[in-house]
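Thread amino acids onto this structure.
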């Protein structure tokens, strides 16, 4: 999902949130979110996103922040 410059675009974040909602039993919330954010309309392929990618990204980000703080 992330580009080579280690940044995450708003489209990518929206797509991960939409995937999270779909994967975790929030079909109505996912529908409403997609309708407003157009997450499914991005050029990101759902088949290239591993399950629970949003949670994994958040966990790694928190770990990075904790490591950064300890330096």
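Threaded sequence (71 positions):
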């Amino acid at each position: 999902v992330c580009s080579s410059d280690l940044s995450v675009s708003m489209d990518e974040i929206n797509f991960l949130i939409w995937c999270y909602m779909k994967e975790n039993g929030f079909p109505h919330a996912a529908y409403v979110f997609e309708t407003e954010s157009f997450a499914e309309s991005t050029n990101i392929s759902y088949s290239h996103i591993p399950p629970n990618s949003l949670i994994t990204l958040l966990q790694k980000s928190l770990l990075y922040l904790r490591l950064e703080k300890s330096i």
